[in-house]
Write a structure and sequence with these properties.
The chain is an alpha+beta fold. 36% of the residues lie in helices and 23% in strands. The protein folds into two domains: 46 residues, no CATH class; 118 residues, no CATH class. A hairpin with a 3-residue loop joins strand 2 and strand 3. The termini are far apart. 7% of the residues are buried.
């Protein structure tokens, strides 16, 4: 019997180096074209392993950035005129406004009518029971300034006085009479001296919050129109 000819089994084709590199690139998430060469794919894999940018993408991005420069846009005449006007205004020297001179009356009113917060104590024993007094200051420049000024407890938290009335109270005095008996002769000596009538303690100005509270309290008391 003649020997039967045996057919060799079907063998799968062996993968090429490029196929192996493509499989590795797929696992590493490297994109590439289908017709990429072995050398280029090796360079991409090496760059990925080294943490460097893809040489193909780098060359593409460099190519994309080299473009024909755009033609310059002709300037807008209206914008140029507005810009020139702004530059002229900025460059122009600043003109200082003349200082307004106050008249003597205006100056005195400004200085003498500003309020000062004080605590007031009347030191005159003859007036110890008085709750306050109407104080009047008058001159040719201020005119007449008249105000009821309380004493003692009513001013414990401070009372606002115009500066002219404060200065008037500060300067006012009363005659203090003192007596002294001579022990040897029994003679009584009487002496008089001028003493400040008021003790005026200047307090800190009220804060904005305290001023609002004071305004509300005065409105509630009917002392403000």
């Amino acid at each position: 019997m003649a020997d039967e000819q045996q057919t060799p089994p079907n063998l799968a084709p062996q993968p090429t180096e490029l196929d192996l590199l493509k499989d590795r690139a797929k696992v590493m998430g490297i994109t590439h074209s289908n017709n990429i060469s072995v050398e280029t794919l090796k360079a991409k894999i090496a760059a990925k392993l080294a943490g460097e940018p893809d040489p193909e993408q780098s060359s593409d991005s460099m190519t994309s950035t080299i473009s024909t420069p755009a033609e310059p846009t002709p300037p807008n005449p209206f914008e140029m005129a507005a810009r020139d006007q702004r530059d002229t205004i900025k460059a122009a020297p600043k003109v200082e406004e003349p200082v307004r001179q106050l008249s003597l009356r205006q100056y005195l009113i400004q200085e003498q009518m500003k309020l000062i917060r004080v605590r007031i104590t009347n030191l005159d024993p003859k007036k110890k029971d008085l709750p306050g007094e109407i104080i009047t200051v008058a001159n040719e420049h201020l005119g007449t300034v008249r105000k009821f000024v309380p004493f003692g407890e009513a001013t414990e938290n401070g009372y606002h006085l115009p500066m002219c009335l404060y200065n008037f109270l500060k300067a006012r005095k009363f005659v203090s009479v003192t007596t002294k008996r001579d022990k040897k002769t029994g003679h009584i000596d009487v002496s008089n001296r001028d003493v400040a009538e008021f003790s005026l303690e200047v307090l800190e100005p009220l804060t904005s919050e305290e001023l609002r509270e004071l305004a509300v309290a005065q409105m509630a008391a009917g002392s403000v129109d």
